[in-house]
Every structure is written in C-alpha cells, then in structure tokens.
Write a structure and sequence with these properties.
The complex is a heterodimer of chains A (254) and B (368).
Chain A (H helix, E strand, L loop, with lengths): L2 E10 L2 E11 L4 E5 L6 H8 L7 E6 L2 E2 L5 H6 L3 E4 L11 H8 L6 H6 L4 H13 L15 H15 L3 E5 L7 H14 L4 E5 L3 H7 L2 E6 L2 E6 L1 H6 L1 H20 L1
Parallel strand pairs in A: 3-8, 3-9, 6-7, 7-8
Antiparallel strand pairs in A: 1-2, 1-4, 4-5, 9-10
Helix pairs in contact in A: 3-6, 5-6, 7-8
Chain B lengths: L1 H9 L2 H19 L2 H25 L9 H16 L6 H5 L15 H25 L4 H21 L1 H4 L16 E2 L2 E2 L2 H24 L1 H18 L4 H27 L9 H14 L5 H21 L3 H15 L3 H21 L15
Antiparallel strand pairs in B: 1-2
Helix pairs in contact in B: 2-9, 2-13, 3-9, 3-11, 3-12, 3-13, 4-6, 4-11, 6-11, 9-10, 9-11, 10-11, 12-13, 12-15, 13-14, 13-15
The chains are: A alpha/beta (254), B mainly alpha (368).
GO cellular component, one term (chain A): plasma membrane
Keywords (chain A): ATP-binding, Nucleotide-binding, Transport
InterPro entries (chain A): AAA+_ATPase (IPR003593), ABC_AA/LPS_Transport (IPR051120), ABC_transporter-like_ATP-bd (IPR003439), ABC_transptr_urea_ATP-bd_UrtD (IPR017781), BCA_ABC_TP_C (IPR032823), P-loop_NTPase (IPR027417)
Chain lengths: 254, 368
C-alpha cells in the first residue's frame, strides 16, 4: 500500500472529529472522500498535509510515518501538495508569479537568492498556464479573476509544485456546471500520473472522476467502493445522498 | 535613447520620487552650508535605517517596535571606537577604569569597528530571530517582544555607565571624524556626506533587487498568506530569520554612518522613543515600496526640525496631530496613496484608448 492511514483519531477537546479511520490508497489512484458536513473530510486532509496532528494513529507513506511532521517538510520531502477549500492564492502577485513561487525545487533559502527565470522554467509555466486555461490572464492579479479561475490557478500552483500526491479540498466548490466539468477533465488529464485525493460534495463531479469512493460520516468510515456500489448502498443513501437530495430540492424550491 | 524613454514612461511614480530624492541629496551640499550638510547627512542615515525597516515590515509584514536597537548597536560600536582613539574617554576614567576593557580592544581599529557595526547587529538579530521565529511567535506577540527587547537594551545601556556613557551617552567624538584618515587624507564632513549618500543609493538598489528576487516574492507571500507558503514547501521561519538579519545589518550600518554626522551617540537614538519614530516614518511615507520609507524619514525629520523652531516645546503636539491626520486619511501613506492614484489613472487611460475592451486591469507590477 502506497499511502496508508492507520487508526487515525483526532480529538478536539473531547469532540472526535475523526475516529479510528483506516484507509489505504494505491499509487496512481484517484480517491474521492465524501460525506456530510462535519464528517471529518477536511480534517483527514489536514492530517495528511501536516496541518493537524492526529491524537492517535499513523500515516504511512511507503512505510514511513509522516503523521505530525511540519507541513513544509511534508510538502518538500514527501511530495504531498494541497489545494485548499476555497481558492487560496497570493492576491498581490500576478498569475504567472503565483505559479513561479509554487515551482518545486527552489524552496531553500540559498535557492531563493540564486534562482533565475530560465527558458526551461518559462516553458514549464506556460505549459501549466495552458493546462489551467489561464494563458491570457498571465499578468493579471488573481483578485480580478473569476472564482472558478482562481480555483484553477491554485490547481496550477499544485502542478508547478509537482508533488507525488495531490490533495484537493472541494476543487469544484462555487463553480458553474461547465467549470466543474472542465475541472474534472483537468484532474483526469493533467493529474493522471499522480495519486490524487479529492474531498467533494458534487455527485456528478464525483461520478466523472472517481474510481473508488470513501464515504465518511461523523468521523468514521461508512462505506467504500466504486461510485456505483457506494451510490446504491442503502446506508449511504440514508445518511448522505438522501439528505443531500432533499437539501438540493429545498434549495431549488426556494 | 528610445530605450530610456520607454523605461521612463513605464516607471511608477514612486521610482520618480526616489530619483528626485537622490538628485536633491546629491546637489544639496553644493547649495548649502556646512551645518545643513551635517543635518542632511544625519537624515540620509535615517533614510537608510527606514529602508532597513521597510524590507522587514513593508515587505515581510513583521512590524518591529524595537528596530532602533540595531541602529544603536552600530552607532555605539563606531562611536566608542572613535572615542577611544585618543586614550581612555572621560566617561570611562570617571567611572574608575584605568585601562581599556578587553571587549573594546578590537575597536581601536576603526576598520574592525566598522565591520563589527554590520556583523554584531546581524548576529544579534540572527539569535533573537532564531528564538522568536522557530517558536512560531507571530503577529502582535512578535511586535510586543521586539518592544520588550528595546526596553531591555535601553535599561542595559543606561545601567552600564562606565562602558556606555550611561544616560549621557558617548561624547567627545570629533565632528566629521577629523581623526580618521583614509589613504592618508582626513575625511571631512563633506566626504562623509557623500559616503552616506553613495551607501544610500547602493542599499536602495539592493532592496529593489531583493524585492524582485525569488526571495522577495517569498517574503511577500509570507506577508500575504503565510499558511499557503508552508504548504508549498517553504519553511517561513528560515525566511523570517534571514530578512530580520539583513534588515538589522542595514540598520547597524546606518548607525555607523550616523556617528560622524552627530558626533554624539546616546540612548536617544537607540531606545523606545526612536524605535517609535522609525515606525512613524513608514506610516507617513507608506510601506512596501521603499520610496515611502525614504520620503517619510526625510519629511518627518525635516518637519521636526522646522516645527521645533516655530512652536518651541509644542512642536511634538503639532507634528502628532499631522501624523494622526495622515494615518487616518491616507492609511497607505503618502507614497502608497500616490501609487494607487497613478494605477487607477492608468487603468482609465487604457479603457479610454480602447473603449469596449475588457475593463480588467493588468498586474500592478510590470516586471521583465
């Protein structure tokens, strides 16, 4: 097993955000984690990327326990990248510069002083710009981009970072249907060689990208399987899909 | 020629003002008295000091309430070095010392002292920075710690009278350092003025380069979104320690240059009050664009001089009211507001030139 979460528990002053979760992810897999609000999805991403330290349990990457390490170490040494919930980019720098700062292999103090924008760097960044459909917005400040474009910019930053494992926290949140579809295709095409962990709500989007889906509820794993299996699982329908549908219906009726 | 023209057209307003400041300072000694040269020489050292704080506060977002420590270290080291050139200075012999303390022996060489003016503040900042930033002290807590440091420094200097001159400071330093010889000739106050001026230009260029380098982009990113930076694989503590050290070394060097301009070193220019003054310069001029720091330092120091002439003891009140007004009306400072104004004008110009075009403005920073 490539990435293995073993009996992870997070206790926030008595509130068990995640309780005894074990999860195995193969190399090159795209895994989607779904679940209602408060199910512990983001907390799991937080632990994998070093933002939150698990109270108990281990996170094994190729057999090495990375639980509790600093986030920059996890990103640098272990090659795990993260896209935050809601676009989290640098608003005072142009789109191109955002990608440039994210570029991997130049993260030490010494490299920060000796870095040169070489031809190879430029070619790479232009390639990423076209992958995320932002070539024309190259010199714009991110705050003038649409919400969807900002999400893509952050995806681009992760591509520039070039990690082995990519974690995406609701990459399609707040996007139009068209943008959501494009995002799904982006994940399937440019991230196809990577191990990708996605936290999502949007069922169409999940159907588009996922082979294996893990369903969380109240900090525990409820079901795991293909999209078809999970979406027909009676328990899942009861706690998650049904409530989601009724919410949607309510939203539509409003 | 065309190249120069396009450079001038693309220059932002802050660069023009910086150029104006440099030209003004360059020709000033030709038009004024020896006294003004000394006064403006002092202001030049203040602008260097302000640049040092700007790369720390403006570029990295680390507001330092005790920045004068490093200026003080530089000026004390060089001041004591000058004071001991002709035997034991008065404050030491009155204190009961019969020979030079071993710690001060290396300072007998002005060259060594000059080097230490940069190295010691840098080293102190490196050590302080290491403890503060690796223990992840952030925001207002960091600022309060810097304030505590400067208060301690002030206490220490005042307390160690035999070694530092205490509350009355280190005096007896010849103005313009007539005792100091460089390649056999005496260094006059005019020479020192131009040494300080050249240093200012070089340090300004260095800061511009720093802000545009990858290092600069990383410290800007730390200022704007520290958490995001960590997840990209950068350890923010390392970069904060680095910029803290660089800015302290610049401040120490400014302290060195201050000595010949004032011929007197005291806690007045290294304590809590002076630290606050540096903050005021940057608040008035604006942070993060370097020119604001320089303009703020020059303007406030100049006004301080004029106002104390007109209003006597009341000058601080008049200056204070002015400062409050500026901070309230122009929170980005004078230069910061000018940059914003020019930016908005350029956007409107663009839209006017291509009506119906996309009204989305380009990036503010036009870079190669």
């Amino acid at each position: 097993m490539y990435l293995e979460l073993k009996h992870l528990t997070v206790d926030f002053n008595g509130f068990l955000a995640v309780h005894d979760v074990s999860l195995g992810i193969e190399k090159g897999e795209t895994r989607v984690i779904i679940g209602p609000n408060g199910a512990g999805k983001t907390t799991i991403i937080d632990m994998i990327t070093g933002k939150t330290k698990p109270t108990q349990g281990e996170i094994l990457l190729n057999g090495v326990n990375i639980a509790g390490k600093e986030s920059y170490d996890i990103s640098n040494t272990y090659g795990i990248g993260r896209k935050f919930q809601g676009p989290n980019v640098f608003d005072e720098m142009s789109v191109y510069e955002n990608l440039e700062v994210a570029l991997s292999g130049h993260t030490s103090l010494w490299q920060a002083f000796t870095y040169r924008r070489t031809r190879a760097v430029d070619v790479r960044l232009e390639e990423i710009l076209s992958q995320i459909n932002l070539t024309e917005q190259r010199d714009m400040l991110p705050r003038f981009l649409s919400h969807g474009q900002r999400q893509w910019l952050e995806m681009g930053m992760i591509l520039a970072q070039n990690p082995a494992i990519i974690t995406l926290d609701e990459p399609a949140a707040g996007m139009t249907d068209d943008e959501t579809f494009k995002t799904g295709e982006m994940i399937k095409s440019v991230m196809k060689d990577k191990t990708v962990i996605v936290v999502e709500h949007d069922m169409d989007f999940i159907k588009q990208i996922a082979k294996t889906v893990t369903v969380l509820n109240q900090g525990e794993i409820l079901a795991e399987g293909t999209y078809e299996e999970v979406s027909h699982n009676a328990e899942v329908i009861r706690v998650y899909l049904k409530t989601d549908d009724t919410e949607e219906e309510e939203a539509e009726s409003v | 020629m065309k190249n120069i023209k396009s450079i001038l057209e693309n220059m932002t307003i802050d660069k023009y003002i910086a150029l104006f400041i440099f030209i003004g300072l360059l020709i000033l000694p030709l038009l004024s008295s020896r006294y003004s040269v000394q006064i403006f020489g002092k202001y030049i050292t203040y602008t260097i000091l302000a640049l040092g704080l700007d790369i720390l506060w403006g570029s990295t977002g680390l507001m330092n309430l005790g920045f004068a420590i490093f200026f003080g270290l530089g000026s004390y080291i060089f001041g004591i070095s000058m004071a001991i050139q002709k035997g034991l200075p008065a404050f030491m012999s009155f204190g009961g010392l019969t020979e030079l303390p071993w710690l001060y022996v290396p300072l007998q060489s002005p060259a060594v002292a000059a080097l230490l003016c940069i190295v010691i503040p840098g080293l102190v900042a490196l050590i302080l920075g290491y403890f503060v930033f690796t223990s992840k002290i952030k925001g207002v807590f960091y600022s309060i710690i810097t304030l505590a440091f400067v208060a301690l420094f002030e206490l220490f200097i005042t307390d160690q009278q035999i070694y530092t001159g205490g509350a009355s400071g280190v005096n007896g330093i010849p103005t313009g350092l007539m005792t100091l010889r460089l390649f056999g000739s005496k260094i006059s106050i005019f020479d020192w003025y131009y040494i300080a001026f050249a240093s200012l230009v070089i340090i300004y260029m260095f800061c511009v380069w720093l802000n545009h380098s990858r290092f600069g982009k990383i410290i800007h990113s730390i200022r704007d979104n520290e958490m995001r930076v960590q997840f990209l694989g950068y350890n923010p503590a390392v970069f904060k320690i680095a910029i803290f050290t660089i800015s302290a070394a610049i401040a120490g060097f400014a302290g060195l240059l201050y000595v010949p301009m004032s011929s007197f070193v005291s806690i007045e220019n290294s304590g809590v009050a002076f630290s606050t003054m540096i903050i005021i310069w940057l608040a008035v001029g604006g942070r993060g664009n370097l020119t604001g720091a320089m303009a703020g330092a020059l303007l406030v120091s100049f006004l301080q001089n004029i106002l104390s002439g007109y209003f006597g003891g009341m000058w601080q009140v008049v200056l204070g009211v002015g400062l409050i007004l500026i901070v309230m009306v122009l929170p980005k400072g004078l230069i910061g507001s000018l940059i914003d104004w020019q930016y908005m004008r350029r956007i409107h110009g663009r839209q006017h030139a291509n009506p119906g075009s996309d009204p989305v403005p380009p990036a503010r920073k036009v870079e190669v």
